[in-house]
Specification:
2 copies of one chain form a homodimer. The first copy, chain A, is α/β, with parallel strands linked by helices. Chain A has 2 domains: about 120 residues, Periplasmic binding protein-like II (D-Maltodextrin-Binding Protein, domain 2); about 90 residues, D-Maltodextrin-Binding Protein, domain 2 (3-Layer(aba) Sandwich), CATH 3.40.190.10. Chain A has 8 helices and 11 strands. In chain A, the strands form 2 sheets. In chain A, strands 2-3-1-4-11-5 form a 6-stranded mixed beta sheet. A 5-stranded mixed beta sheet of chain A has the order 8-7-9-6-10. In chain A, strand 7, helix 4 and strand 8 form a beta-alpha-beta unit. In chain A, about 40% of the residues are buried. Chains A and B meet through strand 3 and helix 5 of A and strand 3 and helix 5 of B.
């Protein structure tokens, strides 16, 4: 039986809809009273795990789930040993550098050397500024990264932006984009190579379905 | 003006109550409709930041907040450069090793060498098993750590336990305790040494208040 790791949060609804379109029903996770972390598909073909977005690649990497759906941003940050097979096109957002709207920084290169950048995505932020040859100090935060510049702890942040509402509400503006992100179908490489549980067929169905939906 | 970093979640209510007892009112954070991340005290003496528990020591370490309240578990995991001044006695929990109730592991030393331990507290877990001289692989997770043993990804978990309800519901049992944790008052070392904003007096008041409440 195949196991699919699904991310809590933003991507869950679309992920479940996509799997429904290929005959796998995990809509039980969407019930507001749901407390279950794993549920079987009614057909008995597969089961699903409901986990934090950052944990999806962990379950797939260890082969506890053969398939997973997760944002490109998480894959960029963690660089897990998984196969990225299909861009599912939903869950668009971008990884951006933002600063106080009142500051004089118009591009990342305007930031002071050894300035501070607060981020939940410390690897993405570090790689980006190393690529610019600008030495900065990355301040790792777990939430409300926008407080970095507001409190004066950091000159900038590197964070996910979708509508930009949070930035605007906090008086911040984007000055650069590191990359754009969408949901991805990831697969445990060995399971894919050995076609465990006929996984290749399911991946093909999901690929076709995704193309049909987004045409 | 002094800034206090307060943790979202479990410890917030008691933290706010304690600060009220020394004349600082940040109860606005408890309003269900609150979206503010920083609020001033009515007296104008201080302001408070509302941040993730893991971020409290970051704000205090960088001196953006002179004071903070955070669980000992977070301090053990992050080892931030802050002064730990008062054990506030509330927010009791313990860091435990747990395994499937149906397993044969009665102590951590029963775990297989090179077995896997899932945890959100990777540093605590690593230090503990190194201390036992038992080489294990730590699997870093962000949430629902109990899925590790349930899915078979790991033999054990290292996680915070308060009532034990989550463990019981998931068929897990504790086999060892790493340490017990309560809320701590932490201070920015330099601010304390220089007695910025008369911080020493406030710390003393909090210490006395805490003793009175817990007598």
């Amino acid at each position: 039986m195949l196991t699919v790791a699904l991310p809590k949060g933003e991507l869950l609804k679309n992920s479940i809809r996509l799997l429904q379109s290929v005959g796998l029903d995990f809509s039980g996770f969407l019930d507001s009273g749901n407390r279950q972390l794993q549920i079987p598909d009614a057909s008995g073909q597969a089961k699903a795990l409901l986990v934090r977005a950052q944990d999806v690649p962990v379950y797939v990497e260890y082969g506890q789930a053969q398939l997973g759906i997760v944002g490109y941003d998480v894959l960029q940050e963690k660089k897990p040993q998984v196969a990225q097979l299909v861009d599912l096109q939903f869950g668009y957002c971008r990884m951006s550098v933002a600063v106080k709207a009142s500051s004089s920084y118009k591009t990342p290169l305007d930031l002071p050397a050894h300035g501070r950048v607060a981020s939940k995505y410390v690897n993405c932020a570090r790689d980006y500024f190393q690529g610019l040859d600008l030495p900065v100090e990355i301040v790792p935060l777990y939430g409300s990264v926008e407080l970095g510049p507001i409190t004066g702890m950091s000159e900038a942040i590197v964070d996910i932006v979708s509508t930009g509402k949070t930035l605007r509400e906090n008086g911040l503006v984007e000055i650069a984009t590191l990359y754009e992100s969408t949901a991805r179908l990831i697969v445990h490489p060995l399971s894919y190579r050995l076609n465990m549980g006929n996984i290749n067929q399911l991946v093909e169905q999901l690929r076709v379905e995704q193309l049909t939906v987004n045409r």
